[in-house]
Amino acid sequence: MLGRLHLNVFEKALSVTVFNRIFCRIALPLSLLMAAPVWAAMVNPVFVLNSLSGNVSVIDPVSWTEKNRITTGKEPHHLYLTPDEKSVIVANALSDSLTFIDPRTAQVQRVVPGIMDPYQLRFSPDMKWFVTAANRLNHIDIYRWDGQTPTLAKRIATGKTPSHLWIDSKSTTVWSSIQDGDELISIDLATQTVKSRTPTGTMPADVFGTPDDKTLLVGMTGGTGVEIYDISGAQPRLVKMLPTGKGAHAFRALGDKRHVLVSNRVANTISQIDYTTQQVVAEFPGPSGPDCMDVSADGKLILVASRWARKLTVIDIASRKVLRQIPVGKSPHGVWTLDHAPRQ
């Protein structure tokens, strides 16, 4: 996501100028908000993180209404469901803490203090390591994980504004975009040292690795698409710049081990990429600054944070139309639910 060094400036500018010009053009007429009921079999809450409100909206997926708001810490920016699916973790960047929430009951389980500037976060698949990107402080922290408490193992200086993280399926390598340094870096988890540095386009944001660990996609928030890298060798190699739309930002796999979505935050669209052919194969509406997404377990719905409209937008994948929008808090960012499609 946008580095907090200029996040407030960017958001204020959008809220006053670009919001009025762009959102008014793409604001959805009532005729496009389909009246048909949502048929996805979802029973567990949908969590929407409101970065500028300092809380999480709890959405009932049956009535599609906000049932509660959970107070977290200052400037939470990302949510992460632990691999064992026992907790949703909210990273409170300016409070230097993590809030653990039960994904079924929406009750706060505990708060872990002393985690420095946790902007983005990710677990290694083997659950041995917990990694955070300190976006404001320009470092990545690697923690040992015992199933309950993270213990700092190594703090690694990265360059200006580490943003998003990806860890390969073998739990050997951490990949991170360096947003204001226009770089992609890799870190060896065994030695906890930087392995490679690769120049990228403008303002790289989210990163997504394919299941075979051979290809990495990087969203160019300062550009118009996704850079695709071959990471099968010692040094990443740029193989393609795939146009998707202005402000290519966050990824979410559809769960079929072939397709991934990317939100184009300035273009107000969501592109579906076939990463086996490296082509865009579908496009969906993404009203009002689409950001993080989740996909329902049955693969029928996209849930996306419409950041500038303060809403959760629900999109029908088959018809490529918006089903409904639910008001949430200020600057909605992360979206997670236990009733989700696979992450690959």
Q: How many separate helices?
A: 1
Helix and strand composition category: mainly beta
Helix content: under 10%
Estimate the global geometry from the Cα principal axes. Answer: globular
Characterise this structure:
This protein is mostly beta strands and 344 residues long. It has one domain: YVTN repeat-like/Quinoprotein amine dehydrogenase (Methylamine Dehydrogenase, Chain H). Helices cover 7% and strands 50% of the residues. It is built from 1 helix and 28 strands. The strands form 7 sheets. It has a 4-stranded antiparallel beta sheet with strand order 3-2-1-28, with no helix packed on it. Strand 24 (290-295) and strand 25 form a beta hairpin.
Main traits of this protein?
7% helix, four-stranded antiparallel sheet, disordered N terminus, single chain, 1 helix, 344 residues, Methylamine Dehydrogenase, Chain H, mainly beta
Brief summary of the model shown:
This protein is mainly β and 344 residues long.
